[in-house]
Write a structure and sequence with these properties.
The protein is an alpha/beta fold. The chain has helices at 16-27, 43-48, 56-61, 73-80, 100-111, 142-152, 168-177, 180-196, 205-228, 238-243, 246-255, 263-274, 285-289, and strands at 9-12, 32-35, 51-52, 65-68, 91-95, 116-122, 135-140, 158-163.
């Protein structure tokens, strides 16, 4: 029964995240069917109580709730194509990477085959799946979310419906995820600089964590500035950040660490100054990042 803690679930795609999802459903007591293009990946889950379907059609037919965890929306459609008829009347939840446009195409494909669609995202690593504070958010059919919310909470206690638009999870995934690679590359640059001095990278982890906490504390401030369009209360101005770019060249000279990846960011700062934002808050970079409609 939808919403019951023992709702049967099918998980398609058993990479590291897919295995974690299936394991969380099993641990929560849900009859769980699994399928993967490489069948051997199902063996550990079968040992825990899952049923391994022989075909993707059988996997879809086994449960009212089908959760896919493949790399892209294109991969998901390709894998599910043979099971298109079996999708009719079932709830399909996709947990993969992709653009908002990809999510809309996926939703149209699924609903065209009679499925009810939710596009979702797991905002944590596989080891965190099932934890009370692990965030998953979804966009799409609210009736599906309401029916299976308690079942989906087996994957993470912080479970959110963003709205009825099928592409919202993909949009938020890309918006929030945009911070990941720059933050990590910044950490890796710092790591290389410390190693150039013979220092252990582990010595800076605590400091980096405190720095990220400080950045987190600023996000509500910057969000208010961007939403209001008022950048005049500049605790940290664009000019201040631009003046600091000279230090990156000094770091390269001293440590032989490649800081060239920062060049587009430096260019963004210069463009902001040219646009009249030099004395404005650094959040004014948002205005420069927006392309005029004719260039979009």
């Amino acid at each position: 029964m939808a919403g019951d803690e023992r709702t049967p679930v099918t998980v398609i795609g058993l990479g590291s995240m897919g295995r974690a999802l299936a394991g969380a459903f099993i641990d929560a007591g849900h009859p769980t069917t699994v399928w993967n293009r490489t069948p051997g990946r199902a063996a550990p889950l079968v040992a825990e109580g899952a049923v391994h379907a022989g075909t993707v059609e059988a996997a879809v037919a086994a449960s009212p709730l089908v959760v896919t965890c493949l790399t892209t929306f294109e991969d998901t459609r390709s894998v599910l194509e043979p099971a298109g008829a079996a999708l009719s009347g079932r709830a399909l939840v996709t947990l993969n990477s992709g653009s908002p446009a990809g999510a809309r195409t996926m939703a149209a494909w699924a609903t065209g085959r009679g499925a009810r669609f939710l596009g979702g995202a797991v905002k944590n690593v596989p080891a965190a799946v099932g934890a009370p504070d692990t965030l998953l958010y979804y966009g799409g059919d609210k009736a599906v979310f309401d029916a299976y919310e308690e079942t989906l909470k087996a994957l993470g206690g912080d479970t959110v419906h963003l709205g009825d638009e099928a592409d919202l999870a993909a949009l938020y995934e890309m918006a929030v995820g945009a911070t990941l690679l720059p933050a990590l590359v910044g950490f890796f640059q710092g790591a290389a600089a410390l190693q150039a001095r013979g220092l252990e990278v582990s010595s800076m982890v605590g400091f980096a964590g405190s720095w990220l906490d400080m950045i987190k504390s600023l996000l509500p401030v910057y969000a208010r500035e961007i939403d209001s369009g008022d950048y005049t209360d500049a605790a940290s101005s664009v000019n201040l950040f631009l003046a600091g770019t000279a230090h990156d060249a000094d770091l390269t000279s001293e440590t032989n660490v490649d800081t060239a990846w920062l060049a587009p960011l430096h260019d963004l700062l210069r463009r902001a100054v040219e646009a009249g934002h030099g004395d404005h808050s650094i959040s004014a970079l948002t205005e420069v990042l927006r392309k005029p409609e004719r260039e979009a």
